[in-house]
Amino acid sequence: MSVRERGIDASQWTSNGQIERDLLLTDADFVRIRELIYQRAGIVLAEHKREMVYSRLAKRLRHHGITRFTDYLSRLERQPDAKEWEAFTNALTTNLTAFFREAHHFPLLAEHIKHKQEPVTIWCSAASTGEEPYSLAMTLLETLGPKASQAKIIATDIDTDALSKARMGIYPQEQVRKLDDARVKRFFQKGTGNHIGLARIRPEVSALVEFLPLNLLAPQWPIKGSFDAIFCRNIMIYFDKDTQAKILKRFAPLMKPDGLLFAGHSENFSYISDAFKLRGQTVYTLAKQ
Ligand SMILES: C[S@@+](CC[C@H](N)C(=O)[O-])C[C@H]1O[C@@H](n2cnc3c(N)ncnc32)[C@H](O)[C@@H]1O
User: Fold this and answer.
1) Gap between the Cα atoms of 132 and 138, Å rounded
2) Active site residue 250
3) φ, ψ (nearest 5 deg) of residue 276
4) Which of 122, 136, 157, 262 to mutate to test the pocket of ligand 1 (most atoms within 8 A of CB)?
5) Pairing status of strand 283-286 against strand 255-263
6) Each residue of 165-175: pLDDT tens digit?
7) Tens digits of residue pLDDT in 177-219
8) Catalytic pick from 29, 157, 159, 228?
9) 205 to 48, 110, 134, 135, 275: CA distances (angstroms)
10) Cys-Cys with 243: which of 2, 42, 139, 253 at CB 3.0–4.6 Å?
């Protein structure tokens, strides 16, 4: 009787320290998964991500009652338009984020927009579960006061599950407690009753943000410039240099002449594209203004 038939879930450690699995993932399957997610989302999956791939995709196989990855992948490839591609992609993205992550960027943005005459527009291009675009919205409200209501933040991500969470705007209070008290009071509603331990983004913050699905690799982007700022943080590290260069080239015409491009802490665009020049601490401006 197999592990699965006995009703024991997933993995067990064997005497030689190997993980024994109830679903079969071969070397060839892993290579195929890496190729498919690269073609679909540009994500380069490192060799050591095998365990992560197994555990995340195992849920999809179980959902379909399939026991071999090869069968799951063949089924996926036979149906290029299947809904399953979305679930496959969602399963393999990394959504790590936080409110006011890389905090030095927010005062820089505030300084950049505070005297703008026209309504401010920002694109947050890998918005994950919403903490980043909501931090931008809070910054606009703090900087522009009532004028912020004319501003617009377009928040996009490839992962539709992350976007659903983002739209709900409900977070564990633990995550919100890291913000300073004034921000928590002004921008969040504390959950009560069944919602105790949760905090919800206030409507005046969420009103500034529009969430849309967008794959940065797609031939067409369903958005128009020109943006005062583009945030593209902690996503380029998952792409190879060629993909990064292509994306940067497409960002340039979507920016206002004085627009700012914000990158993640371990991302350096200077050597990848001549469209942007470094202005300081992972913030870029157009090379030709
Ligand atoms: C590590 S999170 C970074 C979130 C946020 N920008 C931050 O810095 O906190 C990376 C995000 O990029 C998204 N992503 C991955 N591939 C993508 C693609 N091809 N197009 C758009 N977004 C993508 C993932 O779904 C994930 O939410």
Assistant:
1) 10
2) no
3) -125, 150
4) 157
5) antiparallel
6) 999 999 999 99
7) 899 999 999 999 999 999 999 999 999 999 999 999 999 999 9
8) 157
9) 39, 16, 7, 9, 33
10) 42
Binding pocket residue ranges, ligand 1, CB within 6 Å: 41-43, 93-97, 101, 126, 128, 132, 157-159, 162, 215-217, 233-235, 264
In a 10 Å sphere around its CB, with 0-12 CB exposed, 13-18 middle and 19+ buried, how is residue 99 labelled? buried
pTM: 0.92
The size of the chain, in residues, is: 289
Strand order in the sheet with 152-157: 209-213, 152-157, 121-124, 227-232, 255-263, 283-286, 276-280
The amino acid present at 218, given as its one-letter code, is: A
pLDDT-based confidence at 289, cuts 50/70/90?
confident
Name the residue among 106, 12, 97, 25 with its Cα closest to residue 66. 25
Measure 111 CA to ligand 1 centroid, in angstroms.
26
Known catalytic membership, residue 186:
no
